[in-house]
Amino acid sequence: MELNNVDSPVQVRINQPEEEDRLSALTDDILLSIITRIDLITAARTSVLSTRWRLLPWLLPELNIDVKDFLPVPHPDPIDANDMHDAMVTLTKAVRSFFDKPRRESTLTNLQLKIYSINTFSSDIGPLVCGAIDSGLLKDLDLAILDETKPRDCDDPHMLRLANDTDHFFNAYPSVFHCLTRLSLHNVCFYKLDMHHLLFDRCTQLKYLRLFHCDAGRGFLSKIDAPNSELRVLDLDTCCFGRLELVCLPKLEKLHWDTWESEDAPLSFDSVPSLRELHLANGPELHQNVIKLNELLRGTMGIHTLTLDFMGENVSAS
User: Fold this and answer.
1) Are the C-beta atoms of residues 309 and 315 closer than 8 Å to each other?
2) Angstrom distance (rounded) from CA 116 to CA 114
3) pLDDT tens per residue across all 318 residues of the chain
4) Contact in structure between 290 and 268 (CB atoms under 8 Å)
5) In whole angstroms, what is the distance from residue 111 CA to residue 294 CA?
6) Cα distances (angstroms) measured from residue 219 to each of 34, 150, 287
7) CA gap 168, 15 in Å, rounded
8) Pair type for strands 11-13 and 2-4
9) What are residue 243's DSSP bridge partners?
């Protein structure tokens, strides 16, 4: 026992054996479970803790690589082009490191990859992802191609450029289609692209599709006829399609469309036998004619959750 010679109060410290390093006693499976609950940058930093920890981040079965994690903290608002460029530089290094063959030996069951649509980086990211797919290291890809431009600031040339960049990426690296199960696109204009061919004929494994502020033309009729599609969820936000006709999407379970630019009902159904949840919303600033539910729901058979939010008035039925 050790007494510290102080006036008051008397402090007593008892010497005890050093406690065993509890982390070192944990199995790799438990350590990997811990690492999956922290962000990518922190997970990579754990590799310097010890020799044993050095390879653990490269054994993770799932990865979430988000370009926004590489932006300055706090995030600037608005995010300027230099910050986006620098973030993509760091993200590219991270992807290259995690797919480095001497380190990555175990299969990656899922990669969530969120990138900015900066054309100069497609030639870096594309080969890395395709190499992992072709070698069998990557099974499922969740890809989001982001853009920080606000919808009100988007013009046609900007959206057409993003569309061309997206089309170029997929054409240059077709292996992506083999395991692309989730896709999110922002600010893409489909005027000059075959949207159906890109998203439904080629993305044969796609189960989730989100389009934010994408444009196919106010008076344009878009038809989706994809009997072999695996798509379960279609999420449209502030999209301009004129009218969308779902001719055949046999596995579609949920459709969410928030804000469209049309005076009439924005869509119609033909063969959607699995559709169970439908959510439609439009803001009060967008004029629209009366929408008749019996006409809107014609072609649907088993919807159990219907949410309608028009002119700020919400109606939900289950």
Assistant:
1) yes
2) 7
3) 343 444 444 444 444 444 446 666 777 777 777 777 666 667 666 655 555 666 676 677 888 899 998 999 888 888 888 999 999 999 998 888 877 655 556 788 999 999 998 777 888 899 999 988 998 889 999 999 999 999 889 998 999 999 999 999 999 999 999 999 999 999 999 888 888 888 999 999 999 999 999 988 665 668 899 999 999 999 999 888 778 899 999 999 999 999 876 666 678 899 999 999 999 888 655 545 666 777 778 888 889 998 888 765 545 555
4) no
5) 42
6) 51, 23, 16
7) 67
8) antiparallel
9) 221
The encoded tokens of residue 6 equal 């102080």
Q: How many residues does the chain have?
A: 318
| Stated pTM of the model | 0.81
Three-class SS of the chain: CEEECCCCCCEEECCCCCCCCCHHHCCHHHHHHHHCCCCHHHHHHHHHCCCHHHHHHHHCCEEEEEHHHHCCCCCCCCCCHHHHHHHHHHHHHHHHHHCCCCCCCCCEEEEEEEEECCHHHHHHHHHHHHHHHHCCCEEEEEEEEECCCCHHHCCHHHHHHHHHHHHHHHHHCHHHHHCEEEEEEECCECCCCCHHHHHHHCCCCCCEEEEECCECCCCCEEEEECCCCCCCEEEEEEEECCEEEEEECCCCCEEEEEEECCCCCCEEEEECCCCCEEEEEECCCCCCCCCCHHHHCCCCCCCCEEEEEECCEEEEEC
User: Can you tell me the distance from the alpha carbon of 121 to that of 115, in angstroms, rounded to the nearest whole number?
Assistant: 9
